[in-house]
Amino acid sequence: MITQMRKMFSGGSKVFYLYRYISLGGTSLVYAIEDRGPPLSLKIGIILALFIFAKWITDMYTQSGQASRTIKITVGLEMTGMMILHLLSGGMDSPFLWCVFNPAWMAASYLSSVYCWFMMLSYFLFVTAFTYFFANDQTQTLANMLLNENRFYLMLLFMTLSIQLLAGVKSRLEIASARTTETMEHMKSLYQIVEAATHSESENLKIIFAEFALKLTKLKMSFFWDVNGSGNGGHDHLITQGVTPVGVEAALSTAIEIHAAELRQLDSCMVMSLPEHGDFLVIPIKSSTRYWGVMGVKVERSSYEEGRHWFVKQLYFLSELCAVILERHQLERIENQLMIIEEQNRIADEMHDSVSQYIFGIVYAVHSLSRKWKDISTDQIKEQLQIIQESSVAASQELRSTIYSLSSRKNGGAFWITTVKSHLDSLSKLHAVKVTLNVTGDDHGLQVNYQKALFRIISEATGNAIRHGRSSHIKVDLSMKSDEVKLSVLDNGSGFSVAERLSDPKVSGLGVNNMELLVQSFGGTINIQSTKGKGTHIQVTLPSGHQDKKELNELQMMGETRS
């Protein structure tokens, strides 16, 4: 609320200045032209001093920022100035009496009720006492004086109550707005996480969720403890994001290992305090069938006490979503394996029922002919050879038919590049954006894992260009050679600062990091060039033989291990 007050006092908004100076100007004019009171020269001096004081108080409000103590002091100084002004200009008969609404408005709107009513009571007692003892002509009692001025006191009372009531309504509206914003943030987070998970390999999901914990909580450090250890030789390992002080990873790993049994049984967040490294809020990642690890963030004690509910809610949201997505990836992997096994069995059955039967007949006929060819006539030999030839042709036709049914390249089915083009065409029609695709080289020699990775990068890059860059034209160039694959995605969108986006995890999305992870997993390079207002250019290079070398090295390592 103090931040909003500072914005209200900023140079962009003149409401506060206009209200304050118009009220002071009107009362000053009345004070200057009335007959009673000090001489005109003294009145002009008081008015000038009043405007200087008002300018100084207004600047103090503007510069106070979020310091509530400074706001209290400023409101107190203004109220004291109003008391002194009333003292110099006639007490309850002062034309500046209504200017007390300025500090009263500030106290009722932005300070606590206790402080506000304490100031109102102090002002009431001071003005009443001064008027009774110094500005009273001794003809009226205190009760009569209060009755005569009851309109002013009632107006001040109702004005203060009304402003406090409006401030309460405003506060509730701000809370409702904050909840709406929080809900929208959750929906945006859900979309980004699911999208990143869809375009990511399972081994990269832990990194994505650790990074997103950092982004969503807006803290300085987050981590993911992976009990499956896919990236560390099968052992548990720690993934950290953000600012990681020296020695904190080792201390955190030790603490998690000590509390491993407790974390497995935990259903909510817990705080782990590490000597010399501070407090960590952690939560287990568990699905219905599996324990995946632990996610957490480093919190300062002050920020944790203030935002405990928020941090716990964000981590709980991320842990539930992470468990669901990890479980889904595991099921998809198993489903893919079962589909492969099922397809292998189908091919085996088909080959057994058709081709293998012909081959078995051919082998048996040749074997029989080789044993009896001396005892049979030439016509019989020719007849047997004719049968073998017909069986060979039938087997060849069955084999070719099977191959054609399995190969999209042979049966005229959709190639991978056709799928990419279809996706880009749909994207273009859906968002009314011009998308051009230029392809050189043959995609038939491209391995399936390369096809998947390139499709994800193209989808991510073009999606970001439309959603965030507001592009109207996107150009995709793909060059496939025997030794490398090059991809270029160029758009005419709003662009961004690459250094700022990559250095600050609070403002960076998951798309760029996800593309980097994909490219690095293939031993490739990615170069992102972007300027605000001038679009973005993403260039990716993947060496074609990287995966083969990787698999060969793994096989060699397995062989050395066995030997």
UniProtKB/TrEMBL annotation:
Residues 324-351 form a coiled coil. Keywords: 4Fe-4S, ATP-binding, Cell membrane, Coiled coil, Cytoplasm, Iron, Iron-sulfur, Kinase, Membrane, Metal-binding, Nucleotide-binding, Transferase, Transmembrane, Transmembrane helix, Two-component regulatory system. Its EC number is 2.7.13.3. It is found in: Cell membrane; Cytoplasm. PROSITE patterns: HIS_KIN (PS50109). GO terms for molecular function: kinase activity. Pfam families: HATPase_c, HisKA_3. Its cofactor is [4Fe-4S] cluster. Residues 454-546 form the Histidine kinase domain. InterPro entries: HATPase_C_sf, HATPase_dom, His_kinase_dom, Sensor_HK_TwoCompSys, Sig_transdc_His_kin-like_C, Sig_transdc_His_kin_sub3_dim/P. It is an enzyme of class 2 (transferase). It catalyses: ATP + protein L-histidine = ADP + protein N-phospho-L-histidine. The chain crosses the membrane at residues 15-33, 39-58, 70-88, 108-132, 152-169. This is Oxygen sensor histidine kinase NreB. Its main location: membrane. Member of the two-component regulatory system NreB/NreC involved in the control of dissimilatory nitrate/nitrite reduction in response to oxygen. NreB functions as a direct oxygen sensor histidine kinase which is autophosphorylated, in the absence of oxygen, probably at the conserved histidine residue, and transfers its phosphate group probably to a conserved aspartate residue of NreC. NreB/NreC activates the expression of the nitrate (narGHJI) and nitrite (nir) reductase operons, as well as the putative nitrate transporter gene narT. It is a multi-pass membrane protein.
